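so the lab meeting is tmrw and i was supposed to have these ready like two days ago... anyway. pasting both below. for each one the top line is the aa sequence and the line under it is the structure tokens. i havent really looked at them closely yet so no promises
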Amino acid sequence: MEKLQGFDFWKTTLKGARYVVAPMVDQSELAWRLLSRRHGAELCYTPMLHAQVFVRDVNYRRENLYSDVSPEDRPLIAQFCANDPEVFVQAALMAQDYCDAIDLNLGCPQMIAKRGHYGVFLQDEWELLEKMIKLANEKLSVPITCKIRVFPEIEKTVRYARMLEKAGCQLLTVHGRTKDQKGALTGIASWVHIKAVREAVNIPVFANGNIQHLSDVQRCMEETGVQGVMSAEGNLHNPALFEGRSPPVWEMAEEYLEVVKKHTPCSLSFVRAHLFKLWHHTLQIHQDLREDLAKVKNLEALAEVSRQLKERCQEEIAKGAGDAKPSAGLPLPHWICQPYVRPPPKEPGSENTPKNPEVKASKRALEDTDSTSDSLSKNKQKKKARNPNKNFCPEQKPKYIKCEQCGNPKGNKCVFNLCRGCCKKAAYKAVADCPGHGLRFKTKALKLQAAETEKSQVNGRASIQEEPASTPPDPPVAQAVA
């Protein structure tokens, strides 16, 4: 059977899916995908899989894909992160029988992706990406898709998308944020970039970003012309988003736990993370149960904490507090599924500083002269608690003399004036000792030489003693005559 491409693939294999659940590390597992499908999701992605680990570790394959499949969970796209064409294709070949397409992650902006050199940190290596997509498109029996982030420049984003399409990408998901828009700096996704990509390519495009309600989905499709819309955080806080409903949190929590019990095994950390997301707004109020949710060790205990949260919310409703908006300024009562909106980043120096500049100046002067823990960050306060003598003042920190070869601090008593690593190489080469670093190459060599000398002397004495015994004595003349 010929492999479907582009719009034929989207219409036939993906059944024209418009409502899409994003690939989310440790969050878009089978149970959550099935819950989302019950409430309007038409296409789901697996969590991001590491191609290199997938190839070498049979347990990783079984736990993250092979045992995480269900006939109800289709259509399904498996997503991989990779930076080597051969490894990516090898992993994809192992996974293609368990999904409907393979997706290459080119959008992850996290530090782990930077260290591993994958995700959005490949977006400037067009030659490598072209090779990866082209090879996968040739070797796989299922289509290859990509999820990307945009460049600040619309024109460069369009050229990027066209390059991926030309290489063999059959469907493109565009997250309308740049590489630097993450965490507190997430900001608003650019639908203008997404629209420009949609108009420039001849393959289906999904939009990702700014999706909190079903009305956002409809507006995004109208403004950008995309074929579908993907949701990540919006889906985590409200699995019924694609139904246009905002149900009570306990309704979604209980249904999710029911699905988890039917489709075991499911990692306890996944379940705990989902309950934290669902109950996020309520847990800001009931901090004691937040602690319980973090500490319990089994599924039944997690379900019990969720039940207690439900009871407390229902008590509030019974007391007539259901119509009152919470003090946090939420649009709905905290026990209703609703999106989490990140607070905007604070300006440098704006946190906990008084409006009066004179007071601000005097406080800063006090902080400069007073070394109490109030002037330290939380991280430094923790270090101070572990080591009361720790010094954070740059002026008072000891100045280290640098190693002559690598620039690391040299050993104070090193005979070579080097750091330990460089000293070890130099001492080994020169067969020398360095008492400062505890290196004894010369001493060991002398001991070995002395041992060999002693051994040879012992062997020499033994051979001398054995020589007389080796020649038999001549028989006496008298005995010989007789």
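ok protien two:
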Amino acid sequence: MNSSYGEGEAFNALKFLKKNNLRSSARVSSPVERQLFNIDIMTTPDGFPASFYGEPGVLGILSNGISAFLVLLQNFSTAHTGISPVGVENILAGVHLILIGGLCQMVAGLLSFRKYDHLSGTAFIGYAALWSSFGATRIFFGALDATPITYMAQQNNLSVSSNMLSNLSLNATSGIPVCHLCTSLKESAVAGLVPFILLSFILAFCSATVNYIMPFVFGAITGTLVFEAVGLVSSSWALVVSGVLELLILIFAIYGSAALLIKGLTQRLALKGFGTPLFNVLLLGTTNSGKAQNVGQEKKKNTKYAEPMALGFFCDTVSPFIFAFYSFGYMKSFGLGATWVSIITVAQLFSSYYAHLRQDCYHTTKFGLHATYWLIKAWDEFVVSALVLEDTIVISGRGMMVGDWFFVMAGLVLCVVSLNTDVLELIHNMLFVLLTVSTIPQIPLKGYYIFFGVACSLFTVASLYGTFARLINSIAEKSLIPAGPQPISSDQLKKALKCCRAEKGDQDSLPLMDQASDPLFYLLNGVAALSALTISSASTNPTFLHLTVPWVLISGGIIQAYVSRLQVTGTGRFGSVIASIYVAVWATWTWFRFAGNLLQFSRQAAYAFTAGAIALLVINAFLMLIAAYRNLVLLFLTAVMEVVLVCLLLSTVQRLPLQLEIAMLALLSAICVYGAMASLVNCIFSQRLLPMGPPLIKEAAKEESAAELPCPVHYSRLTSGLLKIAGILEAGGVCGIPTDTVYALAASCKNPQAIERIYNIKDRPAEKPVCICISNVEQLVTAKPPFSPLLWEFMRNVYPGGISCIVSKGDWLLRLGVGPAYDRVGTKDSIMIRVPDHTVTCHLCDITGPLAITSANPSGEPDSTHHSMVINRLGHKIQGVLCDGDSNEVVASTVVNCLKIDEGTITIVREGCVPAVKVRQIFERVKSSTV
């Protein structure tokens, strides 16, 4: 097999083989079917249908094995000596678990998502959260340094009470010298382990559709978690059983990682175990052919990154389960619980991040919002546990908080847009609304936690089912586990929103500066603004001040810093400037208005904040100018924020107009609700459906940008434009051109130096070859390559189109016109050929001869689907762009290795815009007719 080819992000054959092999093993299971199909989706006739292929799999499996080994040593030592590890021993074990099982496995999960590996991406990041949480638990136990009094208090806390806060109050007045954040450690650990047991079982079951090694690894992890939980509340026999299972995890991990590593190095299946799944994934159900297509959510199939939906549901299972245990009184303190929820929240942010990379605005917003909610609630309850407050004091503080109402409105927004997805998403969002309603602070305290616990329980069940359904359907790439049809068609939803436009208007695309992270930006600022709303009596209530800190700081500061990271890689002209500045605004607001009152800052200290507030006022004035380039909604937001900052400035000199501040914060929240709704709907449908208002200085921006374009631009609809781009290519330039998939960088094969410059322009690794593009198959016929009749017939059936074929190199390339570029394209022995189904590209090839092409994006970033993206990202490095508007696809071509086609075998190197199933059907039809 060759090394890498392709138009998208730098990739190689190993990168995509795992995915296609998985499908071949699932769909072609019997020997008769394999003989009939006779398509090797991997590198050898043996096949290698493993989802865990290549380096990420090795790292992830070994991380699980080594982590299990660390726990095994402690368990066997405890069972043998009867003495539990304490102090530094526990702390060191916890640190190692976080570093190895957490960070190393997290890297494996992130790489797996980039390799379009649904199962291993979800599993590795999920288990990374597990081992990190387990390590944090060890650190808590080590820090506790069990003294007889503390240990006795811990044991007394094992009794379950119906009123958690009453128990805290009793503990506070009992005179027992125990840190309340360190109580209920065992109960907290059990509450965290139980959902991971359920989810690990699901992962073990799903991995059985891939191979018969990973089910044993994940199954052993499931059993280990069961007995670890039992060992926390029982005798040492459970630790012995857990140790045996951890030994099995280590053995299977060593064998599995060795098999993957040897396979990756030798391209041969030297060790067995990954060749056949335990059962065919298609046995789980039949495809729902009547399912409505979710055209709004993701119009084109995106195979650059794995689907993060299962990981998002995974995280939405763990957090509410822990809260349910806490709400029903099983845990009396949320110190360790806050740590478990915080760690799983990081994993959920990764699901939001990869949804953003897939240009999936809906899941970017949903999982980001859920992560914000869980993190805020975790640290809200942490504050209650840390302060050990009486019920009446908690009621007085929470009764003045209104930030949760914004989560209710945000949940309703998600309900509306999920009408365009499926029933599962709608139910999940409705339960999230119920969850947010249950935590409205104005609910009486006696019913607050019961209501919250019930809502968390229902949400956990829905999330658990969602994890299983999304994971199985992602692996099979079919709707096997029912998620329900689309509740309302896209057209009906538009009419319901009273935003249906004429046919011509419906095709208007969003401005380039609109980003998939915009809805989350509005939601976070709305939560922070409404949470910061303070009445006169609240400023002197220490409970209110303590409880409000996480609401404003987490939403406006911490999670908004994540949004600014998303916007750094976005296509917006001003990137993450506004989000980054507002991180500083809300952090300053929290520090001065809430922490400052608690710390009782002196007047001199307040004057330092006066200077800071003046600086923020000046900076926000520039942000208003930036917003004027975007839309009216953002401009209104920044204008209201300017008044809010004036209130902050006046508060530093004890001249706060409280009524004005309340009105402005409420108005800011209202703007954010509409901004989130409009930007989310517009982004999902890729059309301007809900008005955001025009940019105020639109014309000035156009004139300025026209005068300062980084490279010449020409339009594909003009013959003169096509000729000018051809002239640039003939002269040795590199240009961005449209294709039938995504935009590409092109260089003439007559100029090898131009091909070399492509690598520098993209920061593309030298070992990643580029392909050649020609206008029609007849050009190949003229070059007289030594192709077999089967290969000729196959190429005639797939060209022109979104399929690229890898064939052997030879002197025929010189006759084709590749000439001096022979050594600059392809590998030493092979070349990938593209014949695009795009009139403009084919005419360009007729003028210039064969072109060397690769995707027009910096290596590692998403493909360019509009000529403006090429100009913004690479315009300063290239010599021209042929503008053709939106691309036909959002992913690159499907790459097929035809080197062994004479043996009746083709290899799907990468699935792109043309599904692998269709390629196989074409090949079977061609092979049958040729034979």
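from a quick look at the 2nd one: The chain is about 60% helix and 5% strand. The two ends are 25 Å apart (CA to CA). will dig more after coffe
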